[in-house]
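tool_log.txt
---
The assistant was asked to compare two proteins side by side. It first ran the structure predictor on the initial sequence, then on the second. Raw inputs and outputs are pasted verbatim so the downstream comparison step can read them without reformatting.
(1)
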Amino acid sequence: MARVLPDQLHAFCVEAMRKAGMRERDTRTTADVLVTTDTWGITTHGTKSLRQYLTRVRAGGLSPLAVPEVVREGPSWAVVDGHDAIAMVSSCAGMELAVRKAAAAGVAYVGVKNSCHFGAAGYYAMIAARHDMIGLAMSNADPNMVVPGGKGKIVGNNPFAYAVPAGAERPLMLDIALSAVAAGKIHAATTLGKRTIPENWLVDADGLPTSDPDMYPLRACLVPMAGHKGYGLALLVEVLAAVLSGAGVTREVKSWMLDDPSKPTFHGAAFLAVDVGALMPIGEFKARMDRMIREVRGAPKAKGSERIYLPGEMEWERRDEALRCGMELPPDVIASLVGLAEDWGLDARWVQ
């Protein structure tokens, strides 16, 4: 693994997006989303993806100069047309709008249509948490997951995240795909040459478990987390992010990795913000959150367990380490960054 500094990686990503013709503000927004994700240790959804995003920009499937537009709104809700901007731009705009509306109305929903793969949902949920609000962020995906009783790809593994502010403790943050494992981990296994993965990650064309990562995505599909529970939650995300926003629904959504990069993908996203201060004094809420976090952390531990983690604690500790000492990027991320440099005529010697 190579160890790189977050600021160095951020500057590299900004330069690549400048070369692709994006606005300066949008390059920095997008780079911050992707590099922050890497500092959390979620390298399947960070800067590794930028090469494919900019391939779509070059081909015409994403617009480098698109400006997200509010097309319908009320006091506590809005629908935003992303106009095929890179999804980090429209997603940050969506959550920031939800925060502004929640500050006035208490609770707000913003749906985004004509978007694309938006990376780590947790980043957008944290925008709300930084404003002392509870944030929910979610997106639909192209069908890549089987459902109970079905065969083949029927619904996306639709990512979902929440973030909750606390006082002296770090915010709670959960960011998950609703499949047994994120698709990015299977792609990473393939890139790294792994021949087997756990059998509860994929099923083949007959609906039978397979441990061969090379079968995905053309000859296998993801399995919902917790069976019918993950399936049911994936449909809720589909409703909030796509049906309600006017985005593509299930098979109308195209793969950002596999389908024609000159065409839009029609992803949808949803962002919800709850203004804690509208319900109770924020200091009281944060004190209650701290007590809850400490109670869970201090609960009896299983034999052999050294620690109970709260959602997000691992990510915050990895980020602290990355900001202090740099971060190690795995070979599949390095390969993607080197390829990005080759695509756009940049110097990648610093990462090799």
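(2)
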Amino acid sequence: MQYDAIILAGGESSSELKKIAPYDNEALIIIGNYPMIYYVYRALRQSSFIRNIVISGPTEALRNIFAREERLFFINGGGNAIESFANGMAVLQEQGITEQVLIMPSDIPFITTEAIDDFICQAQKNEADFYYPVTSKEVNEAKFPGVARTYVDIQDGIFTGGNLFLLRSALFEQVLDIALKLVERRKNPLAMARLFGLGLVWKYIIRRLNIEAVEKRFQAVLGIKGKAIISPYAEVGVDVDKPSDLELAQRYLAGVKF
């Protein structure tokens, strides 16, 4: 089974990042030998699961980065990540979209083809409309010691959210509003829980929350079956949104050549 993919590359660089990397768009920040977006694209393109790729962002600047590539499309980003996602979906629909679409941001240069393939393979073993990866604190600390992440301590373990999403394409209009709220709250566990009701908040406070409860509540509220995928790859969760992240990426990816 193959999947189309959208890379969201419209994000503006934070003021802190601009102090050490003077780029308006974070996808264009040079890490090692390449712009950040290029690491994400190469990991995607090397996956046998991936067919068409759309990059939603500043099209003129992005086209200058890539040589002529087959099955690669560009579209201007929107005012936020959800608008950029919708713009990318419109391009894929013109091409004859796959049943499910993989969505990811441009600020995860650590991502690897192995991590992407593992996420997809695990998703294929489950029947759901929406898939989202999480990684354990143990996995993250083993790969990237000391990197600050927002963790949630639940019955299943201590986890942080990932930066990949797999969505049944027929449902994308239905999930646009909730997707924006999820993106806005992704680094605040209590705000995320409140989105699905005080019951989840209370379970979280008294340490009785687990992944299964969140999945059931997700379906009850949205009418969409969601599935959390526990990834053994820390690379799905570590993004670059502050100077310390960029410094880590510069050290980690300095010798990479494609």
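---
observation on (2): The chain has eleven helices and eleven strands. The two ends are 26 Å apart (CA to CA).
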